[in-house]
Amino acid sequence: MAHGTEFIRRLEHHRARRLADRQPEPEALSERLLISWIHHDNMLEGRLYRPEEIAYALHHDDESLDRYLRPLLDNIRRYRDVIQFVCSRAHEGLEAVNLDNLKAIHRMQTTDPKDRGGLYRRTSPVHRDYFQRICSADKVPYHLRKLFEQIELEFEEACDPIAFAADVHHRLMHVYPFRRNPGTTARLFTNLLLLSRGYPPALLAAHLRDEYYDALRQPEPSKLVRLFHQAVSGLVEAPSGMSLLRRDAS
Q1: 79 in a domain, yes or no?
Q2: Phi first, then psi: what are they for 203, rounded to 5°?
Q3: Is 2 in contact with 236 (CB distance < 8 Å)?
Q4: Region 225-229: what's the mean pLDDT?
Q5: Three-state SS across 32-76?
């Protein structure tokens, strides 16, 4: 994993190349990256979508699986749609990093009306998947407003944009705006932040689940910063650069 100034140099070189090559329309994700993103991001939540199941869903090959698994394929396609929404909005630049899109990300994957898609939580849940300290429900609007102010003022000037994104993610998980799907929503939004400026997404591998949860429990984001650096450096330093973000040749 890259560290320090050398990592930042390679990261900014990558960003400059990506922005120079940016097309008028958003570039399609490769199927390989899409499968990996869906698989690992959901495994962090304890939801197992096998790569072959994701491939069936992406190809609309529902007949290859038993009927009882068809709802799973719909869930996978819904998550694909949210990722595509993130990439499309990121193409608009930093202006897309706003509260409306945070709510939209949550609403798109939280379709049951009782789960209040896009609406803030009304209580501070006791039994939940994440165990970091969270603010009281009545403080959610205040903390979100302060977070978006920080993004607007500081992201362009951040010496280490990946560390800044990790800090945003750490703070967003402390705010915990939504009762359902808080983790996936926060990670998708954080990647909207990174992609909007030409940086790679921070896609945490499933085997880092325990480390990720532990990093969120820490009062400071330093452990989360290391995980984000690890995730991003794998894309920045790949021999083909960001080839995973390009449309498959097939």
Answers
A1: yes
A2: -105, 105
A3: yes
A4: 96
A5: HHHHHHHHHHHHCCCCCCCHHHHHHHHCCCHHHCCHHHHHHHHHH
Query: Is residue 126 a part of any domain in this protein?
Result: no
Q: Say if 16 falls within a structural domain.
A: yes
pLDDT-based confidence at 20, cuts 50/70/90?
confident
The C-alpha atoms of residue 28 and residue 88 are separated, in whole angstroms, by: 9
In the predicted model, what is the mean pLDDT of the chain? 90
How much is the pLDDT for 218? 96
- How many residues comprise the chain? 250
CB 90 within 8 A of CB 195: yes
Which DSSP letter does residue 162 get? H
Residue 24 in domain = yes
Structural domain containing residue 240: 4-113+131-245
Q: What's the number of domains the chain is made of?
A: 1
Closest CA to 121 of 139, 145, 94, 99: 139
**Can you say how many angstroms the Cα of residue 207 is from the centroid of all Cα atoms in its chain?**
17
pTM of the prediction? 0.91
What is the pLDDT at residue 241? Answer: 40
CATH number at residue 90: 1.10.3290.10
